[in-house]
Amino acid sequence: MDEPDGAPAPARRGGNGRAGRVAYDLDAVLSVAVQAFNERGYDATSMGALAERLGTSKSAIYYHVSGKEELLRLALERALGKLERLLDEPDPAASALDRLERVLRGAVRVLVAELPFVTLLLRLRGNTEVEREALARRREFDHAVARLVEEAVADGALRSDVDARTATRLLFGMVNSLVEWYRPGGGLSADQLADAVVAMAFEGLRA
Amino acid sequence: MDEPDGAPAPARRGGNGRAGRVAYDLDAVLSVAVQAFNERGYDATSMGALAERLGTSKSAIYYHVSGKEELLRLALERALGKLERLLDEPDPAASALDRLERVLRGAVRVLVAELPFVTLLLRLRGNTEVEREALARRREFDHAVARLVEEAVADGALRSDVDARTATRLLFGMVNSLVEWYRPGGGLSADQLADAVVAMAFEGLRA
DNA sequence: AGTCCTACTTACCGATCGTTCAGTCAGGTT
DNA sequence: AACCTGACTGAACGATCGGTAAGTAGGACT
Question: For A33-76, what is each residue's pLDDT tens digit?
């Protein structure tokens, strides 16, 4: 673990950038940072440790971003943006249950595709303003899904003996827990995963 | 938030302790510490901030514990101990499914009863040796439950089209997510919660 | 009265934190 | 040749970190 092995190689600028030398771009810095934040925790990851992973100096990072917190902000924006877009095309003709299933499968897809970024999002504690704002946006997303569940219960499509809010939270608990164990390339595709989630959520595990 | 309002009042020693003055005991320090760790994160919680919450000085804490990490160790021990004891009385006569349901309900019960301690356990990143050891014990608990699921699938009691390992992880994801939202006294008892978990896990949400 | 113990307090330590700043150097432009 | 700019380096900043050393108030015990 002495060399920044897992890190993407510094992107030597082709024709895109104007000039310069070796050059990480912002995306490379961001993805290395997010990976480090997820492994050790945001607070426990120092800018020095980050620089070591990148193979540069601490201060080089400050050329690309204004500070540690901006790295967090950029990463959270990426995760939240993708999730929020899930709610944009609802297809009002479909039943609440169908729309719920669509959002559920979409959430699994985004989670898998943007695993490190969503992982970071789901571990926030709300210590700073940046974190609190992200948590508020996440809550808004949760509420939108909760409304879908309530609609589906009202339609008679979902059982009514389990409280809709509780059901929504258990549902999210199941989906969000993916970031703690799912790793792509482990013989389980995103679609298979979504199938398992939907099967367990709607039909249950009983044979 | 200037005064340690939420903190349990310092326990003035009655006849139990030998002598002394004002005196927090270890349990009071521990419970305040765990609450702080959960609110801000372990790494983001300084001993100074902890002392402020307790209404004492930093070094007073060092009279009760050897350091920050021992606070963590003691808290994790409490959570893990309770969880591990769940697996001790299996009643070999019962079916795997029945034993699984029992463990599931027991896990919800422990989680609710020891909410702050289990919360801390579930948020570990494995940065130090103490954390890694706790994570190993937690994994062992997970594996024991996974074996129950596999047994139940082999019995034909659980559906076999969803992989047993995946099912176990989704199950734990659902249960463990409780620490993120369940608050006692919110009109939902631990038993009702366990009912909801078991209903969704085994029968599914579909009406 | 004197001693001991408990439960602290005040003052401080070296290390590390995120951040800044002045300087450097390769290449592009003029 | 002179100058500019983008992308850094190395050293340092004040703040804060976890932890320690030394001293002490107050009750218990002899």
Answer: 999 999 999 999 999 999 999 999 999 999 999 999 999 999 99
A160 contacts chain B (CB < 8 A) = yes
User: How many helices, marked H, and strands, marked E, lie in chain A?
Assistant: 10, 0
Q: Which residue is nearest to nucleotide C4 (CA to C1')?
A: B19
Domain at A1-65, CATH from 3.30.310.50, 1.10.10.60, 2.30.29.30, 2.60.40.10: 1.10.10.60
Could you give phi then psi for residue A88, rounded to 5 degrees? -75, -35
Long-range Cβ contacts of A149-155 (<8 Å, 24+ apart): A149/A100, A151/A96, A152/A95, A152/A96, A152/A97, A152/A100, A154/A96, A155/A95, A155/A96, A155/A97
Q: Are B127 and A41 an interchain contact pair (Cβ–Cβ within 8 Å)?
A: yes
Residue lying closest to nucleotide D9, CA to C1'? A57
A94 contacts chain B (CB < 8 A): no
Domain B75-203 = CATH 1.10.357.10: yes
pLDDT at A4: 36
Is the separation of the CB atoms in A155 and A95 below 8 Å? yes
Q: For the residues B73-100, what does the mean pLDDT come to? A: 93
What percentage of chain B reaches a pLDDT higher than 70? 88
For A155, nearest residue in chain B (alpha carbons): B207
What is the CATH number assigned to the segment(s) A70-203? Answer: 1.10.357.10
In the predicted model, residues of chain A with pLDDT beneath 70 are 1-24
Do A40 and B125 count as a contact with CB atoms less than 8 A apart? yes
Which DSSP symbol is given to B2? -
Residue A11 confidence (pLDDT): 43
Cite the residue boundaries of each domain of chain B with CATH code 1.10.357.10.
Answer: 75-203
Strand D neighbors by CB, 7 A:
A 10, 13, 17-24, 56-60, 63-64; B 18-21, 45-49, 58-59, 62, 66-69
Positions of CATH 1.10.10.60 in chain A: 1-65
Name the residue with higher pLDDT: B186 or A152.
A152
Determine the distance in angstroms separating the CA of B38 from the nearest CA of chain A, rounded to an integer: 8
Beta-carbon separation of A169 and B181 below 8 A:
yes
- Where do you find CATH 1.10.357.10 in chain A? 70-203
